[in-house]
Amino acid sequence: MANLVISGVGAAAGYFIGGPTGAQLGWMLGSYLSADQAEPGQPTYGDLRVQTASYGTNIPVAVGVQRVAGNVIWASDKVPYETRSGGGGKGGGPETVTVGYKVNMAIALCKGPILGIRRVWGDGQILVDATVDANPLIGTLYLGGNTQLPDPTMQSALGAGNVPAYRGLAYIVLSGFDLGVSGRIPMFSFEVIEQGGV
């Protein structure tokens, strides 16, 4: 924007001195002077995968190995828990009580069927890396096959017969996920391995 302002000022000053030809020379001189202030290169952007929680969102189709953001399709109420520290024995000081929260939730990933999940991020920090961890999953993964059944965690909260099987949709159910003291669901993203991505 500053480049246009400087060029425009140069064109206006040039017009008063030399008419249309002066305006052209002024524009060129203004562009030349403002070019030194511009930083070359392409702008960089952070991770644009944004987790959603909305109806009517498109279901992504993973190709090969692809990182996708989930769509929260169900979440239970937050359940508070207390952590106590300090206050023991002589001179232990006052006891500190910290309240944290846990939640059950289901996150839709992409069109199924898939082979699995390789990595899981929460707020940009890696939570699970299946190439390193022996027990990589942090929840129950549904691969999106045509024979998958409804999730028991969702059925216990919503009642049997009230939960769809989400056949053809790969999703993960996190049971008792610890939100900590913030009580905020992190922005999850998942590295999905599609059937042709091995």
Write the element-wise H/E pattern from the N-terminal end onward.
HEEEEEEEHEE
Structural class: alpha+beta
Q: Into which percent range does the helicity of residues fall?
A: 10-25%
> Could you report the average pLDDT, rounded to the nearest whole number?
79
What is the strand content?
25-35%
Q: Provide a count of the helices.
A: 2
Termini Cα gap: 47 Å
Q: Over all CA atoms, what is the radius of gyration?
A: 28 Å
| Count of beta strands | 9
- List low-confidence stretches: 37-48
The dominant shape is extended
Characterize the biggest β-sheet: 5 strands, antiparallel
Structural overview:
This protein is α+β, with helices and mostly antiparallel strands. It has helices at residues 2-35, 152-158; strands spanning 65-69, 71-75, 79-85, 96-111, 114-122, 125-129, 140-142, 169-180, 188-194. Strands 2, 3, 4, 7 and 8 form a five-stranded antiparallel sheet that branches. Strand 5 (114-122) and strand 6 form a beta hairpin.
Brief descriptors of the model:
single chain, 198 residues, four-stranded antiparallel beta sheet, alpha+beta, 35% strand
